[in-house]
Amino acid sequence: MKSVKDEARHGPLKVGFILARSFTLSAFALFVDTLRLASDEADKSGRVLADWQVVGSTRHLITSSCGVQVAPTSDFIEPREFDYIVVVGGLLNSDVTIDGQTSDYLKKAAAQKVPLIGVCTGTFILARLGLMKSHQTCVSWLHYQAYREQFPGHPVRSDRLFNLDRNRGSCAGGSSAADMAAFLVRRHISRDAERNALEVLQIERARSGLDIQPRKPLAIECRDPRLKAVLITMESHLEDVVPTEDLAASVSLSRRQLERLFLEEMKTSPGAVYTRIRMERAKQLVLQTQAPLIEIALDVGFDSASHFARLFRKMYGQSPTQLRRATPKNAYGNLI
């Protein structure tokens, strides 16, 4: 990860928060509480070493995805007053999650080279404003496909917890918001401050930006974090199958080294595991949708429906059509 500022700084760490409509309360709370607990000794909540504001175009309450409302604590102030501006997103149920004044404020901050961080789907907001095109973005595996579809050509990955790339940061959300906040505390305040915050939050250790998101495709068990990262990449690229060489390079291994790891932990090859992941997704689509088989085949990376059907029969003992016909339907005629 690349530095956004020189580590030598003066005065408290200052962070501005922008909360989108339907923002994720847990991600915001963990981020700001890590700053709060690092800012003073003995959980006194004094803003000695860090300070923060929730800024907004109005002081109206902002409703989180769980229904709890939070009021901004400040109008928009000069962006350069902050060391970071953190945009906390949430539900992807609307393109209008911030108003025009907030959009203009973020663009002004970007022009002034104030580091901007997207938490949860806050990265979508920054990307819609054209502020993530040349920056590696980290999103949750849950939102990976949506990000790729909405922002084609934007560099994105779903195997890491957070990332800081020059003047842009991104965080998968959830508990990783505390990890990213702890990283900023360690960089700008001290390791002691980080340790104090995490101990009070009952977090054993801060995970780094290189830690892997806790996701197990098909509940496949493996210990090596590089294998976990490759499995997440496989699951995220069913239609556009990633060559084994590129999978290996994504975790800084050669093809032979990756194949050896798969053989040691899973007793099979990367290609065989990739096929299993693709076919399990295909099976879900066969059972849960009425999509034509050719569409399902294309969705999991096959150019030929006949090839797909042959492999499906080999793996599951019956054709996709036979499986679909044998699946019970509800009173509305839908597969159950």
Automatic annotation (TrEMBL):
Keyword Phosphoprotein attributed: no
Protein's UniProt keywords contain Transcription: yes
GO molecular function, one term: sequence-specific DNA binding
Gene3D superfamilies: 3.40.50.880, Homeodomain-like (1.10.10.60)
Domain of life where this protein originates: Bacteria
InterPro entries the record matches: Class_I_gatase-like, DJ-1/PfpI, Homeodomain-like_sf, HTH_AraC, HTH_AraC-typ_CS, INH-QAR, Tscrpt_reg_AraC-type_HTH
Alphabetical list of PROSITE patterns matching this protein: HTH_ARAC_FAMILY_1 (PS00041), HTH_ARAC_FAMILY_2 (PS01124)
HTH araC/xylS-type domain residues: 228-326
Keywords noted in UniProt: DNA-binding, Transcription, Transcription regulation
Name listed for the protein in its UniProt record: GlxA family transcriptional regulator
